[in-house]
Specification:
With about 475 residues, the protein is α+β, with helices and mostly antiparallel strands. About 50% of the residues lie in helices and about 10% in strands. β6 and β7 (about 115) form a beta hairpin.
Length: about 475
């Protein structure tokens, strides 16, 4: 494994400065955690954790003083006295300083009781062996690996293991169960799949009710990190295997299984959903977290809309509308943002079946205009989601649907170029109608606006104010409205 260490991993001047500052204070300092792990994996990491057998705040201030003198510019330190930590930002890196400590926990809280400790005691409180490794910054053994729990061995083997018994580690802080899954998901590559050891999996299953003491915000933070991994499905399968998914996203758990009636079954929706998320991840240049949330939730309305029709088998009519209505409630429960991000996810969930439906129908200009109008700026993301939603074990079927889907995309481009309908705004406003007919706000205004909108989208009139105005006046006349003189 040592062959994969990136050259110069401790050559950055910051480590030499920390070493000198620690020596000046008469304390021992070490680089620890994710930076050490990623050195062996050859991954870039600008988040550096320094643990010191003493005061992390004092060491950070001493380091800042050296930098300020040598670079002749002020170096700021952010101090967090409540946690006994300090943060220093330098040349694009964030360096956090903390005193070595030992921790104990109450059963009903994940907030630890913290006391000063040694490096070994600090390593014992770490979540996983691969995150407990440290590099010495002492002059006499600079760069030496301090690895009491065999983290380097586990890293080479692709193993996620706790330093202590998993029951103790997960009882102390149940968020570590999700972190184990997230690291397995994050660190896995095509060459090496990281696996959680069986005793940890067993402990998660036995202790899943400990999830109840966690805040929704911390849980969602881990979910978001899983979703932006290269293969998000791995994380959600592990959550399902350990029973954590039932606590976090029961809407996904309900997608599992295949029901059969009269010999007719339906697609296994849970596996399909995870494949769609992976499909989105495979084609994105940069991870779009909220598009991946839309992919994860796109079929959550299917259990409620599932029906068996003897003539056609299983149907899920309107599942996209049902799912769209579920999104705000789910976001509220998880304490996720209820702003434009939630609306974006809800919009894609609600619309995700529209382009696919066009594949099996005659692609009319009217249907395309309505899709352009409803999708607006999210059209490209919607089409990416819909393309990812084409899954089947029959390659010929997938190829046929994808070919038809390409024709829908071409039609969208043609109609948009011709009619400029995306993000279209009705030229007939309520104020204009009230001015022309001298009427107060009321039902008639909505009827006229909707009539003009449908006439444009259906291609009955052109997308101009003049034609819209004429249509409005014709409809108003039918309704018995008189123009003001």
């Amino acid at each position: 494994m040592s062959a994969t260490i990136t050259q110069g991993y401790l050559d950055s001047p910051i480590f030499g400065i920390v070493s000198r500052a620690a020596e000046g204070l008469g304390v021992r300092a070490f680089v620890i955690g994710g930076y050490v792990r990623d050195c062996f994996l050859g991954r870039r990491n600008d988040d550096i954790d320094i643990v010191v057998e003493g005061s992390g705040i004092e060491l950070a201030q001493a380091v800042a003083e050296i930098i300020s003198k040598e670079e002749r510019r002020h170096c700021n330190v952010s101090v967090f006295k409540t946690f006994g930590t300090a943060m220093l930002k330098w040349r694009g890196a964030e360096i956090e300083f903390v005193g070595a400590r030992r921790e104990s926990y109450r059963h009903d809280s994940r907030k630890p009781i913290v006391e000063d400790g040694t490096l070994e005691e600090d390593q014992m409180r770490r979540d996983f062996t691969i995150n407990a490794m440290a590099f010495s910054l002492q002059r006499e053994d600079y760069g030496a690996l301090v690895d009491p729990f065999g983290g380097i061995r586990d890293l080479a083997a692709g193993i996620i293991r706790t330093p202590l018994e998993p029951e103790q580690t997960y009882s102390d802080d149940p968020l570590r169960m999700l972190r184990a899954i997230r690291f397995a998901c994050k660190l896995s590559t095509t060459e090496l799949t990281f696996k959680i050891v069986p005793e940890s999996i067993a402990a998660m299953k036995a202790m899943r009710d400990r999830m109840s003491i966690l805040s929704q915000e911390r849980i969602v933070e881990e979910l978001n990190k899983m979703l932006v991994c290269q293969r998000p499905s791995m994380g959600f399968r592990l959550m399902d295997e350990t029973g954590l998914l039932d606590y976090i996203l029961p809407e996904l758990s309900k997608l599992k299984g295949i029901e059969t009636v009269e010999g007719k079954g339906h697609k296994e929706i849970f596996s399909h959903t995870l494949q769609v998320v992976d499909n989105v991840a495979a084609v994105e240049e940069e991870p779009n977290l909220w598009l991946r949330w839309a992919a994860l939730l796109h079929d959550i309305g299917k259990p409620a809309s599932k029906r068996f029709d003897p003539s056609v088998g299983w149907t899920f009519h309107g599942h996209e509308v049902v799912g769209g209505r579920m999104v705000p409630k789910l976001f509220t429960r998880l304490k996720m943002p209820l702003n434009e991000k939630m609306k974006y996810v809800q919009k894609l969930v609600t619309l995700h079946h529209r382009p696919i439906a066009l594949v099996d129908e005659e692609v009319t200009d009217s249907a395309v205009r309505r899709l352009l109008f409803d999708a607006g700026d999210e059209l490209e993301d919607l089409m990416l989601l819909c393309n990812a939603d084409i899954t089947s074990k029959n390659p010929a079927k997938v190829a046929r649907i994808k070919a038809n889907f390409e024709s829908v995309k071409r039609k969208l481009a043609e109609v948009e170029a011709k009619d400029a309908i995306r993000n279209w705004k009705n030229p007939i406003t309520g104020e204009y109608i009230m001015e022309v007919y001298g009427i107060p706000p009321g039902k008639d205004i909505g009827v006229l606006k909707e009539y003009v909108k449908n006439a444009v989208l259906d291609g009955e009139i052109g997308n101009t104010f003049e034609e819209a105005d004429m249509a409005m006046r014709r409809k108003a006349s039918e309704m018995g409205l008189k123009e003001c003189l």
